[in-house]
Amino acid sequence: MERYNGIGIPCITTTHKLEIVGFNDVARNMFGRALTMTPMGEKRIVLTALVNSNVSNFLAWVTNKDKDYIELKIVCNGAVKHFVANLKSVKDIDSLGNETQTYNFCFFPLDSYHSLNKDFNLYRSVYMYSTQAIYITDHQHNIVSVNPSFINLLSRSFKEVMGKNDGMIYTADSHTKLQKLLSTLDTERDDISERLECIRMYPNGEPEIICCKVHINVIFDEETKEKQYLHILDDVTQQVSIEQSLSKAAYTDSLTGLSNRMSFNERFKDMYDSAQRLGEKLCVFYIDLDRFKYLNDEYGHDYGDLLLKHVSERLTGCFKKQDLVARVGGDEFVAVIQSDEDIECFEHIALRAINELSKPYTLHELLYTCTCSIGVSVYPDDAVDQEYLLKAADSAMYIAKQNGRNNFAFFDLNHKKTEDKHQKIIKIVEKALADKKIIPYFQPIHDVDSGELVSFEALARYCNDNNEILPPSYFMPSIEQDVLLIGLGVTMIKQVITQLRMLESHGIMIPISINLSSYQLLSEVIIKQLEMIALRFPQFVPLLKIEITETLIFENNQFVVVNIARLVECGFRLMLDDFGTGYSSIYSLKKFKFETVKIDKTFIDDIHSANIEDQTLLNTIISLVKNLKLKIICEGVETESQVSFLKDQHCGFAQGYYYSQAISKAKMLDYIKKHSKKDIFLPIKITVQ
Hints:
This is EAL domain-containing protein. This protein is of the alpha/beta class.
């Protein structure tokens, strides 16, 4: 009876003849001394001696076991109390090898039993009517109990699952995972919560995979002392679907469906680590579309977006499924290959991408051709650092663009050093603009015949921390396609207006003109700045002349044409710089209504050339401009003989070291008083270079 001593209810063990052979302390205390009055070896007390009434019913119940319990009245130390008796029959083998049978009786006080029964019914209701799917397995993971919600969730019948191993309700991977988790119970933790894939069976036999949050607790069978497992399943399939959608949105470019920058960074790191571990190469392709901005500006972003979608589809087809292809910027893509192939293989892939992307695209009603430039870098040849490997490919891409676009180039260290220098200068200019270290210097322009001062050309200069004055050639090549060029233009315009106001205060009304590049003429900031000047300082509008270059680009860009028209409408006059070189055309002279043409220095240098054709060409240019009734300014005049030649040709005006180098604004007033007639005031020319 030792197993019953810890139980708080009376328990008695009898033979099959109901002879009492054991009892616990609770039974002895409750049923009285009668249990212990029989000496050892004498006739044993029969359990019926304790039953106060309905002995026949009791004996019939013991014999038939037609129900789990029976109500009895039992004498307890002279008093009669009501109990509910429970019986369990136990078969065993004695020391002689004979089979024996004993009965274990448990007696519940009637009041306590009803309370327990009420609790049991409550727990049973919770189990049966819970919306959560619940099932219990034995220590061998065979299903011993399920509730209706389990049947509904997995569309299985009671007969299908009872007594079966619970592996049948999980996918193979999830069941393996579950077994590993169960092995940690009792040793590392008391319960488990994990998302697992379950198999729902439809009536037609078709399976469906659903995701369930499975919570598992260990329970113990008090009689067998064996583990059982309580499983509670919650269907989280919809939640997982939402999470996956959100995750996809976070890691996928919404326009093209490719990996976005966040996803690229994570996958690139994984591939880089893998390449290091396996000793393989990692090849990075940095892909930039050529002149993509033109498409957006000319036709609108709808066309640009459609092109990006088509490019993404073609680009994906150029690489394998395991390769990484991502959109990391507006029209910038990066592809990464982990491989042990040689360089020739990477060249072949780059050529294939260039050929595919250069084929015509159908964008709505427009048949459009777009090329690309590709930079290629290889680990570990070009870099052993993940970040530098990407920068190396980016640097190589600029080499491809400089080589004419629609091309690819491998990383070149010397070119990277040049790019680094450009980036350094960009930062210097950015700081210089903030610190107001970019200032105008003014080069005089004189009348060739009289020698009188007629105007100035203002040139941007950088005054460094050592007060050294550096020319535009130091910084302009690095920022000519950078947004800093807009800031530089605005800074120069403001400083020139300030200088004009200073001269006006001295009674000198000398005009100023500004030189704008194609990049600046596309800027709404620059155009609005000049429109504001026309409103605030109308007296300066006749004095300002706008010098422009690259007219072929202007002719083909409607936005530039519109912006130039806005400036002309304000009253500003136009000058054409470097005529005879670059993209200048006679057609543009009439289309944009230029007032003055500047002849480039290269033609002036050839005045005294032994080649008669050089002089003939210059004479032809001067004659052409005169016939168009346009004014002429010759640049780069350095000798008296050059001046004499220009006098003979009646070319008008000139500038160069023969007259003066560019001077600071502090010296400007004295120069004007010394070299110009007091009754003649001609425009000051400002060139933002």
